Amino acid sequence: MSSSNSSLSSPKVRRLSEGESLAGEMTSSDHSLSIADSQISDILKELTGLQSEVVALHSSLKESNEQIRRDIQDFCSIGENDLSPSNATSSFHEFQT
């Protein structure tokens, strides 16, 4: 049985030296990966928030543009209604009498 146990690879065990703590071990690649995951998560949250803001601004801009088009059409139609041929001659005749 001892031969089967010796064939298994044993995990590397590193003893802490005096004054060293487990906190120092946290600066390993595992810690770096958790920081990277956290940063990626923060970036994704920010992008999602920005995406929502862009959608809201786009909707607002679209509504504003539609209102501007209606206002321009109304403004242009004011001049068209006043210059119709029947109105122009009747107002001229009224002025003459």
TrEMBL record:
InterPro entries noted in UniProt: YLR146W-A-like
Annotated spans, Disordered: 1-31
Annotated Pfam families: YLR146W-A
Top-level taxonomic group: Eukaryota
Biased composition range(s): Low complexity: 1-10
Name the record gives this protein: KLTH0G11440p
Organism: Lachancea thermotolerans (strain ATCC 56472 / CBS 6340 / NRRL Y-8284)
